[in-house]
Specification:
The chain has about 450 residues and is α+β, with helices and mostly antiparallel strands. Helices cover about 55% and strands about 15% of the residues. The strands form three sheets. The protein has a five-stranded mixed sheet. The protein has a five-stranded mixed sheet with strand order 7-9-10-12-11. Strands 6-8 form a two-stranded antiparallel sheet.
Length: about 450
């Protein structure tokens, strides 16, 4: 009964019963008055029968009193008070009730007092004769019959009140459910559906209630949901822009580092032949510029769709390893590639370069941080339905935190100070090709990542 309709049902039943109690009190007082007036009328009829005959037998007189339900009948006619019918009283008269001038409060008080008092008493009742047959009529009667009749009437009133209250409560319960509870339930369902997918505009409340207050609530809710969807989309765009800037900063830093190394070599060498390295510098800078322009043009975190073309995998792997050898400096790190010459695949060469470069760079940084010699290998192969690129190293392995948040930005960094964006970017780029990037193995003996690209459109 914690629902609105349940509580309304209980309150309705209580209030109806209270209303019936308030009706019961004057009703029982009216019943008592009618009962006594009826006895007065019956006594008057009996007295007229007595006055019609000059001499009646004691047996007939007793029968008249029994039929009237009284002990004595006194009439006042022509200023003369006359005892018309009489019989012995079982006890003294305990109270006198004059119905001629009795007010409502007096009748209610006397009725409640009679219900409360279970004793058998004899009372005197005074009233006006019907049809002006005298000035007044006075009777004596016992109270047991009166009280029993009042109790019987009261029980019938209470039963009727209970039935009325139940019927009224049920009808009001059904009315409340139709008029109030169902519209509120619909609003609640709409709110739950919207909460499960706040970015889906289909979940916005459509106002339909005919009740003014509920319709205003529905319209307000719909407005709030619409504004929230706009705010969420704006927040998503801002978050996407922030993520895009972070990705640009990450990859641009690494690409420009390679370009800087080439530039340093060009500046310190007096050999004119070294100028042959200028194209590599131009290529590195071009990659940085293209990355910035494409990301900022879209203004969102998602990478652009890959531009597919057929190319030799060995060329990409060689570029990555040449760049990382320069970055390794004096570190005791060896690089190797195991890619069949002429092995081609269909993919976006710039995006695949970034993926392999990120993985090889992470491996190189992990080995360099350990201070021990190591080896990094890039292998390329294929199966019947997929192209496989495996990057392995003999480094110290990924720490537990990096494994737990492997592809989570800013949490999956494998080295101190790392942002963890490299693996996130790489996984997103591979997914854009319809493939997967998985961690095959990591431990004290090294780490292995596997890039799987489907051959359907790529091989």
């Amino acid at each position: 009964m914690n629902s609105i309709s349940g509580r309304f049902l209980i309150l309705t039943a209580i209030f109806v019963m209270l209303a019936e109690v308030l009706i019961f009190v004057p009703s029982i007082a009216r019943f008592r008055e009618d009962f006594l007036l009826s006895r007065l009328e019956r006594a008057q009829i009996a007295s007229l029968a007595r006055l019609a005959g000059d001499d009646i037998s004691p047996e007939l007189q007793e029968e008249l009193l029994i039929n009237a339900g009284v002990y004595n009948v006194v009439l006042r006619r022509n200023d003369a008070r006359q005892l018309v019918l009489s019989s012995p009283l079982p006890s003294a008269i305990s109270a006198t009730y004059d119905l001629r001038d009795a007010g409502a409060m007096t009748l209610i008080r006397d009725a409640l007092a009679r219900l409360w008092n279970p004793g058998e008493e004899v009372v005197r009742v005074i009233g006006s004769p019907v049809r002006s047959a005298g000035m007044l009529i006075e009777i004596t009667m016992e109270t047991k019959t009166l009280r029993m009749a009042m109790i019987d009437y009261g029980l019938r009133i209470l039963v009727l009140s209970a039935v009325i209250s139940v019927i009224t409560a049920v009808l009001l319960f059904l009315a409340v459910r139709v008029v109030l509870v169902r519209p509120i339930s619909r609003v609640v369902r709409s709110m739950k559906a919207y909460a499960s997918a706040p970015e889906d505009a289909r979940g916005v409340m459509v106002p339909s209630s005919s009740i003014t207050e509920l319709r205003e609530a529905e319209e307000t809710l719909a407005l709030m949901q619409t504004q929230l969807i706009s705010a969420l989309r704006q927040k998503e765009r801002l978050a996407g822009l922030g993520g895009a800037v972070a990705k640009v900063s990450h990859d641009l830093r690494n690409i420009l580092t390679s370009a800087q190394l080439f530039t340093d070599r060009l500046e310190t060498s007096q050999d004119p032949m070294v100028k042959r390295m200028a194209p590599k510098l131009v290529n590195s800078i071009s990659r940085a510029v293209n990355l910035c322009e494409s990301t900022l043009a879209y203004g969102k975190a998602e990478e652009p769709a890959p531009r597919l073309s057929r190319f030799a995998l060995l060329d990409i792997v060689t570029d990555v390893i040449d760049s990382e050898r320069l970055s390794a400096g004096d570190a005791d790190i060896s690089f190797s590639e195991d890619v069949r010459p002429g092995f081609q695949l269909r993919a976006d060469p710039e995006q695949l370069y970034r993926v392999i470069a990120n993985l090889v760079r992470n491996a190189r940084q992990a080995i360099a941080a350990s201070g021990k010699p190591g080896e990094i290998s890039v292998q390329g192969g294929e199966t019947d339905d997929a192209v496989l690129i495996r990057i392995t190293d003999t480094g110290p392995g990924l720490p537990p935190k990096a494994q737990e948040h492997l592809f989570t930005p800013f949490q999956g960094g494998a080295t101190k100070g790392g942002s963890g964006l490299g693996l996130t970017i790489s996984a997103e780029l591979v997914r854009g090709h319809g493939g997967t990037l998985t961690l095959e193995h990591t431990g004290l003996d090294g780490t292995s990542f596997l890039i799987t690209l489907p051959k359907g459109d790529l091989g």
